[in-house]
Amino acid sequence: MSTISDFKNNFNGGVRPNLYKVVVNAPVIGQMDLQFLGKATQIPGSTIGNIDVAYRGRMLKVPGDRTFEDWTVTILGDPEWRARTAMEQWMNSITNHSQNRTSVSTNDIYGTATVSQLNRKGNTIRTYRMQDIYPTTLAPIELAMDPDGAPEEFAVTFAMNNFTVDGAGMDGSSNNGVDISISGSISLGGVTISGSF
User: Fold this and answer.
1) DSSP state, residue 115
2) Which candidate, 22, 167, 4, 157, places its Cα nearest to that of 90?
3) Cβ proximity of 129 and 166 under 8 Å
4) Beta pairing partners, 158
């Protein structure tokens, strides 16, 4: 039976959600290192859809297509207004405010971004590389006379086509930015299936 000491030795203090760094790149705006101004974000998520196939009164569940959730970054306002301006320029290049047209080529619409989870020593544990992103929503900045003194912030939501993962795998090996695969075996009704998935 496990003890609290076993838990302590395996937990190792855990991973802190406030130890991360974010970088956004796009041809229109160049590189935005949000290590200091990126107040909040997420490790990207994805969903594998489900297809129900009827067979003799029963439903067989079959994996469908993978979809990627939108990715959001909350950015602190800087005194030079650089971060907000960059996002406004990117969105304006995709579709102009006054006319329904774009000012860049299709390839220049898309950008990339990385989110890196850091350990308590500041070293990167894993990096998620978002590919083919573009901003879909630039949230308003609320202004008020309330004396709370909190700095301005705004959220940017990006559509994303794909992401890959860098970092050590379960066996300590690095996958160098390729999609993660899982190796092992599954036993079903006395039949064992082995391989990489």
Assistant:
1) E
2) 157
3) yes
4) 71, 135
| Beta bridge mates, 138 | 156
Structure token digits, residue 42: 């997420």
| pLDDT one-digit tens code per residue, 84-120 | 999 999 999 998 888 887 878 877 899 999 999 999 8
- Residue 106 belongs to what H/E stretch? helix 106-109
How many angstroms separate the CA atoms of 173 and 14, rounded? 21
Which residues constitute the domain of residue 102? 4-196
CATH number of the domain residue 145 falls in? 2.30.110
Report residue 122: phi and psi, to 5°: 90, 5
pTM of the predicted protein model: 0.78
Total number of domains in the chain: 1
Q: Other CB atoms closer than 10 Å to residue 98's CB: what's the count?
A: 6
